[in-house]
Amino acid sequence: xxLDLDWVASVQANTxxxxxxxxxxxxxxxxKKDYQAAWLLKAVSLIDxxxxxxxxxxxxxxxxxxxxxxxxxxxxxxxxxxxxxxxGAVCVYHDMVATAVxxxxxxxxxxxxxxxxxxxxxxxxxLRVQEIRESVAAGAREIDIVISRRHVLTQNWQALYGEMxxxxxxxxxxxxxxxxxxxxxxxxxxxxxxxxxxxxxGADFIKTSTGKEGVNATLPxxxxxxxxxxxxxxxxxxxxxxxxxxxxxxxxxxxxxxALMKDELGxxxxxxxxxxxxxxxxxxxIERQLDHHLTGHYSAANRHxxx
Length: 307
Ligand SMILES: O=C[C@H](O)COP(=O)(O)O
Fold this sequence. Notes:
Elements: H1 5-10, H2 15-25, H3 33-45, E1 47-50, H4 58-69, H5 74-79, E2 89-93, H6 97-103, E3 111-114, H7 125-137, E4 142-146, H8 149-153, H9 157-171, E5 175-179, H10 188-200, E6 205-207, H11 219-236, E7 241-243, H12 251-264, E8 277-279, H13 282-295
Parallel strand pairs: 1-2, 1-8, 2-3, 3-4, 4-5, 5-6, 6-7
Bound molecules: glyceraldehyde-3-phosphate.
Family: Belongs to the DeoC/FbaB aldolase family. DeoC type 2 subfamily.
Keywords: Lyase, Schiff base
Pfam family, one: DeoC
């Protein structure tokens, strides 16, 4: 849709109310026993299994893709009465896209590429756009772009909208997730306004963080962003997805996020087309909890290597 600056100007975020509500969530009762196992399996299906390290190698990415194909052992799945579970996507740097695409051949698991000069997004503009095109050409079906934080910090909404539109166009058929890097945006109101502008410019998902900021996904930021998604749907009829990313490493955190999505946005946001976890180590903790559910014992974390 066109940039609606009146709507942007009217956006508010009541920080103390949001923080109060977020603080009340941690103490909530959570699902137990078989219900918990079922929710954890759902969480697995929503993970963008991620490796974004300077020392990534084709071997690590291939191992990660093997994990993506079979995220939970066949024995565990069988014992829980399930089969055929995969993660939502594999998320890598551009240079690893071709390796990941090859390693996932024969599956429906998409490869997501962090393009546009991730994580700072400060490389020359034409190179950022070109990187998107090259990632798509290499087989990425999802592109995680980073916005220019300076456009938010200087309130240059037209520039933010313009860059998001151009990146959206460069993605073609690929889905685009807009990473806001919320830990660098200063205020929750800025988070809300950046969320809205990215949605107006065609983002399929809004995503909190690169995982490289000092503060990554948090509950106050999540409440702010998913309420923007709700407002956007109410005003336009368009459902935009949400991806919290960075620092989500524990099964209990995943359950909290899922409960929040269900409460605030409803069941549609519990499927991979509208919700993902960006996480490099969450899967290992979920496996340990599932093992515990079945055997009463926790396995060592090193039995659940990711890549
Ligand atoms: O988008 C994904 C994040 O980079 C993953 O962050 P994490 O390593 O803290 O799970």
